[in-house]
Amino acid sequence: MKTTARVVLVVAAVAVGCSVVASGAPPAPAVHREGQSIKPTTDAIRRAVDKVLGWKVGIFTNVFPGLTFSESAMLADALGLNYVGGDSNQKVSPQIDKNLDCRLSPDEVEAVKQTLISLGLKMTAYHVDSIPSDQDSQRKLFDFAKELGVETIVVGTAPSSLTALDDLAGKSGVNVAIESRDDPKELVNSIQSLSPHVGVSADFAGWMEHGIRPVDGLAIVKDRLMAVGLRDRSALGPDASDVRLGTGAADLQRFLYEVAVAEPQPQEQPNACVNCSRPYGGTKPLIISLDTNPWGIVIPTGPQPGISGGKFADLSEEAADFERAAQPAMGYRIDEDARFIPPTTADRIPEDVKQKIEAALPRKAAVSPKAPRKLLVVDLCPAGGYYHDTVAHANFAIQKMAEYTGAYQPIFSNDLNNLKYPNILQYDAVFLNSVVGEVFADPAVLDGLLRFVRQGGGVAGIHGSSYASMDLPEFGEMIGAQSGPHRVETATLKIDDPDSPLTRQFASSPLTAEFGGKAFTYTDEFYHFLPTGPFSRKKLHVLISIDDAKTDLSPWHVRPDKDYGLVWIKNYGQGRVFNCALGHTPTFFETPALAQMVMNGIQFVLGDLPADTTPSAMLSGR
Question: For residue range 144-186, what is the model confidence (pLDDT) as tens digits?
Fold first, then answer.
């Protein structure tokens, strides 16, 4: 089956209440400050699927009985979600005691929009029990939905005049999904002659109670599928019981995988900034919502409860269940896209810049290679990942240093099958050139790289590479850091280990002359890695960091210890890791001491240049 539908995912909440969240879910503080988002800065699959597959994860705000739209929206933000779906029967807020519908005044509509903006949310769907019968009321409904940015109206019952509704949906640009709680064949037949603006909202529980497996229902509705209400049950048929998502007969993982496979296949792309986004083949969103209350949890009514305790954790667990089920679908899409995204070539670099880079590159290896070496260079930035222009500069420098020194043979490829085991064994090390985004969504790709390094291989990363797959802590632990605020600024950087074979050249470099060979002033995009992340001197041998005594760190309140490491080496199992968070600006490879450091780092991860990897905390002083 092939479908052109782009996917919009809405996760409906289980319940509200209480404090600790499940593993894999974002932590939530006790309260919001008015008009302020508390969404975690680290990425998660519930948000990343939007970038990779077009699935928008959120909650329908009517899932919390007794709560208003604005109160439920705060819970969506606390769960680390980017999207919500509204409902026409829900009150707007404690201050606006009116239903969320087209009878709101312009000022009240504006208040709803400001709530969404302040929390960094978008209302991607809007639920109504039925479509009004008169045309004037229908237009008001669609105008109201469009004003709030809604992509799809989900309706409980089929309208009497489908043709007129189809025409209105086409003119307004707001789609309509009709709920299907039993065999979808009749509904699909009734809308078959309509435009793609009218489709089906599938109820997993209803389908399963009528003996229909979700993947079989998908085959019936095909590209008419716009919405899915997820619930897992112990078996097909009316006598089955609800079970935790992903553990029953719904086979959610397969369903999501089939949806991903049905997306239009990517096409060969020219050598341009195609890594920034992948164009989707369709224009219709697909809304997927988790069941509101599958275990019969009693939800309190009245004033908004605090977001602490077991019921909030239950919802976090449901979102985590979805994430586990969605990961193979994401991996499939990333792997498919990667085959069509070529490595960046030097064609993008101005000739005068190429000359500056070549003049700064080392002509001789630090040590002779012990054997012929192959270095796999990956610069993949999947859909949603920020693409750095200086990827081209690094690829050019890596190629030229190989030609000048003969220390290794670079293989430039974004085909992630190269990282799967045992394919990766044909290389001596992997260089991650500012890979950003969900690069390692396929478990086989991440497992292959981790196993390779643990068993004695090497991996090097430059600049944005710590921002690859930030929802996967295993990658962060290997590379040494993950997320943190950043911007281009000027700082004084100190050489933490001037005796390391990777940094000895700084002692005689003009770059460090002002500071006696032990520091230098530099402009770059500096990452300020979070104290809650994997960056720690207890694990890393830090080579270069921001000198907090000589740099104005007042804009940053990230780490109480003001320890902002930027370059380090470490052992991971029996293997070697070199990571350099510098490299955002074109001047990086135009600076001889920095270019030499990368060359030395490559030889270190290849296994030719020995270096002390003792964690810095085990050495005297900082």
Answer: 999 999 999 999 998 888 999 999 999 999 999 999 999 999 9
333 and 350 together in one domain: no
Helix or strand holding residue 125 (H, E): strand 122-128
Q: What is the pLDDT of residue 1?
A: 38
Residue matched to tokens 């990230």:
558
Shared domain for 485 and 458, answered yes or no, is yes
Tell me, yes or no, whether 373 and 309 share the same domain: no
Helix, strand, coil % over all residues of the chain, rounded to 5? 35, 20, 50
Q: Classify residue 530: in a domain, yes or no.
A: yes
> Is residue 142 assigned to a domain?
yes
HEC string of 45-96? HHHHHHHHHCCCCEEEHHHCCCCCHHHHHHHHHHCCCCEEEEECCCECCCCC
Structure token pair of residue 389? 């222009």
- B/e letters for 262-277, b = 16+ CB within 10 Å, e = fewer, are bbeebeeeeeeebbee
**pLDDT level of residue 554 (50, 70, 90 thresholds):** confident
User: pTM higher than 0.85, yes or no?
Assistant: no
pLDDT at 570 over 60: yes
| Cα–Cα distance for residue pair 140/153, rounded to 1 Å | 13
Contact between residue 79 and residue 57 where contact means Cβ atoms under 8 Å apart: no
Q: 12-38 in b/e burial notation, b at 16+ Cβ within 10 A? A: bbbbbbbbebeebbbebeeebeeeeeb
Q: Are 236 and 199 in contact (CB under 8 A)?
A: no
Number of domains in the chain: 2
160 or 238, which is more confident? 238
How far, in Å, are 56, 71, 388, 439 from residue 48 at the CA level? Answer: 9, 24, 19, 11
Residue 5 contacts residue 226 (beta carbons within 8 Å): yes
- Residue 204 sits in a domain whose CATH number is 3.20.20.150
Same structural domain, 92 and 76: yes
- Are 327 and 432 members of one domain? no
Is 305 found in the same domain as 368?
no
Would 280 be classed as within a structural domain? no
Q: For position 577, which CATH number holds?
A: 3.40.50.880
- Tell me the residue range of the domain where 572 lies: 346-618
Which residues fall within 8 angstroms of residue 450, CB to CB, at 6 or more apart?
Answer: 474, 475, 478, 572
Residue 612 has pLDDT above 80, yes or no: yes
- Are 455 and 495 in a shared domain? yes
Residue 23 lies in a domain: no
